Automatic annotation (TrEMBL):
<dbReference type="Pfam" id="PF00395">
    <property type="entry name" value="SLH"/>
</dbReference>
<feature type="domain" description="SLH">
    <location>
        <begin position="31"/>
        <end position="94"/>
    </location>
</feature>
<feature type="signal peptide">
    <location>
        <begin position="1"/>
        <end position="24"/>
    </location>
</feature>
<dbReference type="InterPro" id="IPR001119">
    <property type="entry name" value="SLH_dom"/>
</dbReference>
<dbReference type="InterPro" id="IPR051465">
    <property type="entry name" value="Cell_Envelope_Struct_Comp"/>
</dbReference>
<keyword id="KW-0732">Signal</keyword>
<protein>
    <submittedName>
        <fullName>SLH domain-containing protein</fullName>
    </submittedName>
</protein>
Length: 409
């Protein structure tokens, strides 16, 4: 009898030990531990406890949760599909995570998107958001790329920035981040509207299509023009490039960034540098530094020169926010807090004491970066005319391209 009891005890002990190993490897076993030793005061404590109670994630046998431990693609996919209650119709076979992958694929959450690495690869934040957007947001399109999904996720409040204006798309995903995002996915699916991080949304938008105007200027661009089938006409960042007639000079817009001059925490405020930019009105020139009461919209371009380009002066390509009512208004503002229309600003050339509309250069080959822009009012004047973003190549006679357009709501 004593031998049988000992044998039974050893068998139970072995089973528990093996269960702990499997749990640590797959993170699929439901844990009954709620008071983990390492989450008190953690920013994700509430979400972790909620997720554990829901049963789609657990802790470790030593009583820890390890909130800052990175998760793999497989672990996140397993958590997400379990939280959503998804089951694979084809069942489970192969690796421990295969049923979760099958379920995600059948639900349209995963579409063979991971072209490199394995399911054991640590999951970048942009991949986490790819699956999360498909799982939680209605109306997404399967052909949205990683950056578009990141933007849609940030706009819906599924993901926040890691610091002001930094969404860290290639950063790895921790267990805490994973459960917080999954809890937000579940909230969105319940019909809740979540708060979003405006700076993160703007950063994601720049990654998506080189601009943050949809985030920063909804009062101007919140009612975009539509196609015949009623779909929105997308922002055409692919058109913001030009090549000279001889093919030796290429100019492309790398960023079109709106900065709120009244927001000291605007993550792009560093573009408003000391005495580098000036704007003009009624034959007077004013410093951009210290301006307030308006938006500064910066266009940054890269101009690439090849050997034997044959010029020492270039007018850079540019973007412009155009409105015909603005065009007809006089350039008479003396204060940026009371603008009646748009006002252009350019780099200031201290050597010649004038605005730099173009670039003089003796460069033989290489790349020059140039920035200029517009000041625009905080609120648009009442106008029935479109607000249009136009691109001017300036390197050849190719006309002006329309990048985006919207009417006031």
């Amino acid at each position: 009898m004593k031998k049988s009891v000992v044998s039974f005890f050893l068998a139970v002990l072995l089973s528990v030990s093996l269960l702990g190993v499997a749990y640590a490897e797959t993170q699929t076993t439901e844990s009954k531990i709620i008071s983990f030793t390492d989450i008190s005061g953690h920013w994700a404590e509430a979400a972790i406890n909620k997720a554990v109670k829901a049963g789609y994630v657990g802790g470790y046998p030593d009583g820890t949760f390890k909130p800052d431990q990175e998760v793999s693609r497989a672990e996140f996919t397993k958590m997400l599909t379990t939280a959503l209650g998804l089951k694979s119709v084809s069942g489970a076979s192969g690796a421990w995570y295969q049923e979760a992958v099958n379920a995600a694929t059948e639900a349209g959450i995963y579409a063979g998107d991971f072209k490199s690495g394995t399911w054991d690869t640590k999951m970048p934040r942009k991949e986490m958001m790819l699956l999360s957007v498909r799982a939680g947001i209605t109306g997404y399109k399967q052909d949205y790329d990683m950056n578009r999904n990141l933007y849609e996720g940030a706009k819906a409040g599924l993901i926040m920035g890691t610091s002001p204006g930094n969404i860290d798309p290639d950063g790895t995903t921790t267990r805490a981040q994973a459960v917080v995002v999954i809890e937000r996915v579940l909230a969105v699916k319940r019909g809740e509207t979540l708060p979003s991080d405006k700076y993160a949304v703007g950063a994601a938008e720049i990654l998506w299509h080189k601009t943050n105007i949809l985030t920063m200027l909804p009062q101007y661009f919140g009612n975009p023009m539509r196609k015949a089938n009623n779909e929105y006409i997308e922002f055409r960042d692919d058109l913001m490039q030009s090549v000279s007639d001889n093919g030796k000079i290429a100019c492309s817009v790398t960023k079109l960034v709106a900065v709120d001059l009244d927001d000291p925490n605007d993550p792009n405020r560093g573009l408003v540098t000391s005495d580098d930019f000036r704007w003009y009105s009624n034959n007077q020139i004013y410093k951009l530094k210290g301006a307030s009461g308006s938006y500064a919209v910066f266009t940054t371009v890269d101009i690439k020169f090849s050997e034997n380009h044959g010029t020492n002066f270039v007018t850079p390509c540019s973007t412009t926010i155009y409105n015909s009512n603005w065009k007809d208004a006089k350039l008479n503002a003396t204060d940026t807090s009371n603008l009646n229309r748009d006002y252009a600003f350019f780099p200031w050339d201290p050597e010649y004491n004038k605005l730099m509309y173009g670039i003089r250069t003796d460069i033989k080959s290489g790349t020059i970066t140039y920035t200029s822009g517009q000041l625009i009012p905080k609120q648009p004047n009442v106008s029935s005319k479109e607000f249009v973003i136009k691109f001017s190549g300036n390197l050849r006679n190719e006309g002006v391209k329309q990048i985006y357009s919207s009417t006031l709501k």
